[in-house]
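Q: Please design a sequence for this.
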C-alpha cells in the first residue's frame, strides 16, 4: 500500500474553533490521514473522536497514526452521507463537534494509480471508495451522452469549454474507449483552443474536477450531512467545515444560512407558516482562511475556507 501522508490545512484554527469540551465526543466526518483528529485528541486528553472515511488506505494510515490514543479514536469505514446511521449504530445522540474537511486529499491526488490526477498517466478511476463498487470516471467518459457530459462539466466545474470537450470525448471514444488519464488529457488538450490553453491552470483541471465530483457525488451529499450534524450537536457544540473550491463553499454557506434561519417563508408573506426555527448561529460570520506562514509551508491551503456554526 502507498503511503498516505496528508498535511491538514487550518489545523490550529480548526481545533481552536471546534473544541468546546475537553472530555467531549467529536466526529471527524472526513478522517483522511488523521491529522485533524490527532490534534483534537492531543488537545483534549479525555475526549473521543469518531473518524469516518470511505477510503481504506486513509483508514489504514490513520489507524497507525492514532494508535497511541487507544480507544479514544474510533474508526468507521463509510461515507458521511450515512452519518445518521453511523451515529445511531454507536449510540451517539449528541456530539460536541463535527468536522468536515471536504474534497480530495493530497495522497489521493499524488498517488497516480488512483486516477484522480491529470499529472500522472493511470487507469481512469477517481472513486474515493474503490472497494464499494459504483461507477468510475472511465464509465462516465465512455457511456454518458454528449449532452450529459457537457452538463456535468459545466455544473461541477464551470468549464467554459464544456460542450466542446464533451463533443471531442464522444468523437474520440468512437475509435477506441478512453481508458487512462493520459488519453483523456490528450482529448481535452485537443478540444480546448490553443489560446485558452495558455491561460492559468492546466487545461484538464476543470474536467478532472467535474468528473471526480460526479463519480463520488460530492456536492449532493454535503447539505444533508451538515443538517444531520447540526441536529445531533449538543447546545454550544460546533460544526466546522473546510471547503476548497467555490462550488463546495457555496453549498456550505447556503446550508449554514438555512440552518441559522428562523423563518424561510417568502418575504412578502406577513405571517410565518413554515414553523422553521434556527438550529445554529454562524460564528464567525466570515470564513477563516490560511495565514501567510501556512501558505508558505503548504500552498494547497490557499483555496481553503473554514466556516463554523454553533448549536443554539
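A: Design:
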Amino acid at each position: 500500500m502507498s503511503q498516505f501522508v496528508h498535511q491538514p490545512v487550518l489545523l490550529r484554527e480548526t481545533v481552536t474553533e471546534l473544541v468546546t469540551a475537553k472530555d467531549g465526543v467529536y466526529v471527524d466526518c472526513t478522517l483522511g490521514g488523521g491529522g485533524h483528529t490527532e490534534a483534537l485528541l492531543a488537545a483534549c486528553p479525555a475526549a473521543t473522536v469518531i473518524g469516518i472515511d470511505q477510503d481504506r488506505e486513509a483508514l489504514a494510515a490513520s489507524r497507525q497514526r492514532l494508535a497511541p490514543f487507544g480507544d479514544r479514536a474510533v474508526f468507521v469505514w463509510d461515507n458521511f452521507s450515512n452519518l445518521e446511521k453511523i451515529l445511531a449504530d454507536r449510540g451517539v445522540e449528541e456530539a460536541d463537534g463535527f468536522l468536515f474537511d471536504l474534497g480530495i486529499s493530497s495522497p489521493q491526488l499524488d498517488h497516480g494509480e488512483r486516477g484522480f490526477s491529470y499529472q500522472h498517466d493511470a487507469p481512469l478511476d477517481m472513486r474515493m471508495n474503490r472497494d464499494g463498487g459504483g461507477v468510475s470516471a472511465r464509465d462516465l467518459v465512455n457511456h454518458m451522452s454528449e449532452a450529459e457530459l457537457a452538463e456535468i462539466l459545466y455544473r461541477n466545474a464551470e468549464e467554459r469549454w464544456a460542450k466542446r470537450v464533451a463533443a471531442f470525448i464522444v468523437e474520440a471514444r468512437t475509435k477506441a474507449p478512453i481508458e487512462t488519464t493520459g488519453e483523456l488529457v490528450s482529448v481535452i488538450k485537443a478540444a480546448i483552443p490553443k489560446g485558452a490553453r495558455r491561460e492559468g491552470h492546466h487545461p484538464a483541471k476543470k474536467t478532472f474536477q467535474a468528473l471526480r465530483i460526479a463519480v463520488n457525488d460530492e456536492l449532493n451529499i454535503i447539505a444533508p450531512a451538515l443538517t444531520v450534524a447540526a441536529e445531533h450537536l449538543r447546545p454550544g457544540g460546533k460544526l466546522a467545515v473546510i471547503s476548497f473550491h467555490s462550488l463546495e463553499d457555496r453549498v456550505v454557506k447556503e446550508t449554514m444560512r438555512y440552518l441559522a434561519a428562523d423563518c424561510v417563508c417568502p418575504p412578502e408573506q406577513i405571517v410565518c407558516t413554515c414553523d422553521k426555527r434556527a438550529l445554529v448561529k454562524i460564528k464567525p460570520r466570515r470564513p477563516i482562511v490560511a495565514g501567510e506562514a501556512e501558505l508558505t509551508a503548504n500552498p494547497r491551503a490557499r483555496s481553503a475556507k473554514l466556516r463554523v456554526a454553533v448549536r443554539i
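Q: Thanks. Anything notable?
A: The CA atoms of residues 94 and 232 lie 5 Å apart. Residues 112-216 form a domain with the DNA polymerase; domain 1 fold (CATH 1.10.150.170).
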